[in-house]
Amino acid sequence: MGKGCITATKYFLFLFNLIFFIFGVLIMSFGLWVLLDNQSFITVLQESSTTLQVASYILIAVGSLSMVMGFLGCIGAIYEIRCLLGLYFTCLLLILIAQVTAGVLIYFQRDRVSSTSTCPFTSFSPLPPYFVYSTSRETG
Predict the structure, then answer these.
(1) Which residues fall within 8 angstroms of residue 59, CB to CB, at 6 or more apart?
(2) Mean pLDDT of successive 10-residue segments in the chain (140 residues)?
(3) Is the Cβ–Cβ distance between 68 and 17 less than 8 Å?
(4) Which residues are the signal sequence here (predicted)?
(5) Which DSSP string corresponds to 44-109?
(6) N or C end of the chain: which has fewer CB within 10 A?
(7) 3-class SS at 27?
(8) What is the H or E stretch that residue 116 is in?
């Protein structure tokens, strides 16, 4: 009974990390596409190109980290390598600590964050002005 549970746990860990790896590839690919494609978002949105470039670099970094974490988890789970599983656990613990720290910092600096952050799409409207919905119901 115990051996079957350990085997099932091993394969669930492998499956979870495989999905994690695939999503990492997708995130990194999207970041690279936004950064390298000349006909994409950066040329369309000239005023926010630096923000978009920073966001694409963040996507590339997050995708790369997800790929490495997924790879460590997959190999460590399938071959039962304690060193890789320990490294995987340590990386997960560091990511958790970083997320909690970022959340606490953002919470205590929320006034500064909300005053400095702007949305580049506030002035962007995909519809021409005559298609914008008016709330006034004036009858002629």
Answers:
(1) 27, 28, 30, 31, 34
(2) 86 94 96 80 62 86 94 93 92 93 90 67 55 56
(3) no
(4) none
(5) H-GGGHHHHHHHHHHHHHHHHHHHHHHHHHHHHHHHT-HHHHHHHHHHHHHHHHHHHHHHHHHHHT
(6) C
(7) helix
(8) helix 110-116
